[in-house]
Amino acid sequence: MRVLIVEDHEELARTLAAGLGREGMAVDVALDGAAALYRAAIHDYDVVVLDRDLPVVHGDEVCRSLAADGHAARVLMLTAAGTVADRVAGLGLGADDYLAKPFAFAELVARIRALGRRSHTALPPVLVHGELELDTARRAATRGGRRLELSPKEFAVLELLLSARGAVVSAERLLEKGWDEASDPFTQSVKVTVSRLRRKLGDPPLIETVPQAGYRI
Description:
Layout: E1 2-6, H1 10-22, E2 26-30, H2 33-42, E3 47-51, H3 59-68, E4 74-79, H4 84-92, E5 97-100, H5 105-118, E6 126-129, E7 132-135, E8 140-143, E9 146-148, H6 152-163, H7 171-178, H8 189-201, E10 208-210, E11 214-216
Parallel strand pairs: 1-2, 1-3, 3-4, 4-5
Antiparallel strand pairs: 6-7, 7-8, 8-9, 10-11
Helix pairs in contact: 2-3, 6-8
């Protein structure tokens, strides 16, 4: 899942990004509203975590612009003001969810994952292909009852491939959704991650390489 954190308090933004990264998400950070709109225009985010009180371009305007431009990303609005009127106003701007500061990190993670599931065609929380099961809520994978010890990137790639339901997923798409903007677009990270994932999944092989197209389950 690709997430954009828009928060002008840099230390908080970096802390949240690091925490979400440990949860297996690919996270970018924008410190003002203009930077947020720029990143949203060039990256395909699943969820935007948007602080309401932003410099340069206010969070309300960012939210309004994302909704008006038809972005598929779901917006989770953050604010220090947690009154009912504030929540109603934020949702009225096009936000999909609202979380008042201070908040528990575990709740933030849960809300982001719930919104991420809503940003695509409805999928069950447990993705199944034969003996392979991927529990996206519990972040657990098994094959034939055997637990698979997957890294966050391996889990993300497997989730993307299973979500495609047999369709081919390009390496570029995997890189876009599974890695943050600091990643080198010419990196071999996707190829290496798929190779490691294949070994962990075992036999018979589940991931097929489609020449000049990508990968599929």
